[in-house]
Amino acid sequence: MSDTAQGFLTVTGETAAPTRVRDYVELLKPRVMSLVVFTGLIGIMIAPVHIHPFTAALAVLSIALGSGAAGAINMWYERDLDARMARTRNRPLPTGRVAPDDALGLGVLLSIFSLLLMSLATNFVAAGLLAAAILFYVFIYTIWLKRRTPQNIVIGGAAGAFPPMIGWAAATGDVSAVGIALFLLIFLWTPPHFWALSLYRSEDYRRAGVPMLPVVAGARETKRQMLIYTALLLPVALAPALLGAVGWLYGAVAAVMSVAFLGHAIRVWRTADDDSAHPAARRMFRFSLLYLATLFAALPLDLLAGWVLNG
Asked: Coiled-coil segments, which residues (predicted)?
C-alpha cells in the first residue's frame, strides 16, 4: 500500500475520513501562525522606513508561509509524539487524515516558496532571517533539542522570536537595536509561557518521553526558572521606549503588563508543587498570551498617538 493510501488509515487501522483542505491548514499550525503574522506585521509597521502596502502584504504572506512550512515539517517529524499526547493525538498525521510524505512535501515546498517570495518582494536580509527562523525551528528545536534536553524551549524559542525582526528588516533592509529588542522580548517570553503550559500538562509530556523541565527537574525548579525569566522580561519589554522607537504610552503599557506578568509568576511560585491541576499556572499561561499581544499592539498605537498629538 502506498504512503498516500496509508494516510487514509488511522494509527489503529480503522478507515478514516478522506483528507480535507482544513487538515492541510491544520498542518500549518494556524494558531501559532496568527501570532507570528501579528508580530511580523508590527515589525513592519513600527520601522522608520515605510514600504508600499502591497510589498508589506507580500512580506507578511512570506512570514506566514514560512511559519506554516516549519509547522508542517514539525508535525511530520513529531507524529509519533503527537500520537501519545492527549493534546495532540487528534492532529491530521496521528489520525491518518494526511499521509506523512504529503506533510513533509508541503512543508518543504512552502519553505522554498516563502523564501523566494520574501527575497523578490523585499530584500535578502529579510529572506535570510526568514530562512534562519525556519531552519532553527526544524533542525535546532524539532530534530535536535526537543527530545534531548529540558532547555529545548529556551534555545528553540529563538525560532519564534524572529518574526518582528524579519518584519523590521523587510522594511529597512537591516537589523537594528530595536529589532533585536523585539526578538529578545519574545525570546524571554517563550520559556515562562510554555513552562506554565507544561506544568499542568506534565503527565502528557512524561508519557510521550519529551524532557520538558517539569518532567526532568520537577515543579519547584520549573517555577523558579519561570520567575527568573519573567523578571528579566521587565527591562527588555521597556527597551523599545528606552531606545526611542516609541514613547510613553507603550512604556506605560509595558511596565504595567510586565509587573502583572511577574505577579502571576510569583503566585505560581507560591503554589504547592504537588498540585497536579496547577490553576495558577493555567492562569499564567492564558495571561501570557494577552501579555504579548497587548505589548505588540501598543507599539503601533503609541506611534499613532504621537502622530495625532504632534499634528
From this structure: none
Q: Is residue 14 part of a domain?
A: no
Looking up cell 530595536 gives 178
Burial of residue 188 (CB within 10 Å: 0-12, 13-18, 19+) is buried
Residue stretches of the chain with pLDDT short of 50: 1-17
Which residues form the domain of 27? 22-174
Judge if 216 and 158 occupy the same domain.
Answer: no
- Provide CB contacts within 8 A for 63, sequence distance 6+: 36, 37, 40, 114, 118, 130, 163, 166, 167
Tens digit of pLDDT for each residue in 253-299?
999 999 999 999 999 999 987 776 789 999 999 999 999 999 999 99
For residues 52 and 188, state if they share a domain. no
- Quick check: is 290 in a domain? yes
Degrees, nearest 5: CA angle 140-199-212? 25
13: in domain = no
Q: For residues 15 and 10, what is the distance between their CA atoms, to the nearest angstrom?
A: 6
Residue 10: what pLDDT?
Answer: 37
Q: Grid coordinates standing for 173?
A: 533592509
Tracing cell 490553576 back to the chain, one arrives at 279
**Separation CA 46–CA 119 (nearest Å):** 21
Q: Are residues 186 and 169 in the same domain?
A: no
- pTM of the prediction? 0.88
What Å distances lie between residue 72 and 10, 18, 250, 284, CA to CA? 19, 18, 35, 28
